[in-house]
Amino acid sequence: MSVFWFVLGRPADFESMASSKKVITREEWEKKLNDVKIRKEDMNKLVMNFLVTEGYVDAAEKFRLESGTEPDIDLATITDRMAVKKAVQCGNVEDAIEKVNDLNPEILDTNPQLFFHLQQQRLIELIRNGKVAEALEFAQEELAPRGEENKSFLEELERTVALLAFDDVKNCPVGDLLDISQRLKTASEVNAAILTSQSHEKDPKLPSLLKMLVWAQNSLDEKAAYPRINDVSTATLEDPAI
């Protein structure tokens, strides 16, 4: 993370490299990194933000006790949010909808796209379980009216119903709808909506900062050869190829 703050925090240094590609030794680079001061409190907040947003309630509670970092949301609400997410991931969409309404009925009332995607996931689960007649009835009564009001909904509905036209649904052109990734996508959308309703950011800050780190290094590569981080999971500096 120090590389990120160094690159973006010192534009004058960055611009001085623009005239020619400069070679920076590990000793010089580490000295520059050590000159950058990052408060431990800020790092702790980043960790807590990640744990809370991703729903690691036990880890968040333990981290709160060990670091003294208070979350900006009631940790008890995480358990309820994770119960909704787990229900979708397991294909229990009706249960998930009920849990969302228990948390806050306005979430689905004010987000027609989310409600449609949950209903679409319900339809997918009916097809997955071979309940063809029930799936057709559900599509006609619950989803078709919404498709008439929204073109994008109609296209998604037609693609989902197309599953019924194939004997081998898992290997058909729209078979990806039956992949676990589809459930995860819907669960992620629900999770984000609940976080937004709680006035909390829907995405954790840490992954975004890591993406910015990669972008900053790629930009700096055009100006200088320096020890860079190629594996963000270890943050190990690797000497430049000269």
UniProtKB/TrEMBL annotation:
- Tell me which residues make up the CTLH domain: 77-134
| Domain of life from the UniProt record | Eukaryota
**Which residues does UniProt assign to the signal peptide?**
none
Tell me which InterPro entries the record gives: CRA_dom (IPR013144), CTLH/CRA (IPR024964), CTLH_C (IPR006595), LisH (IPR006594), Ubq-SigPath_Reg (IPR050618)
Specify the protein name.
OLC1v1021622C1
The scientific name of the source species is Oldenlandia corymbosa var. corymbosa
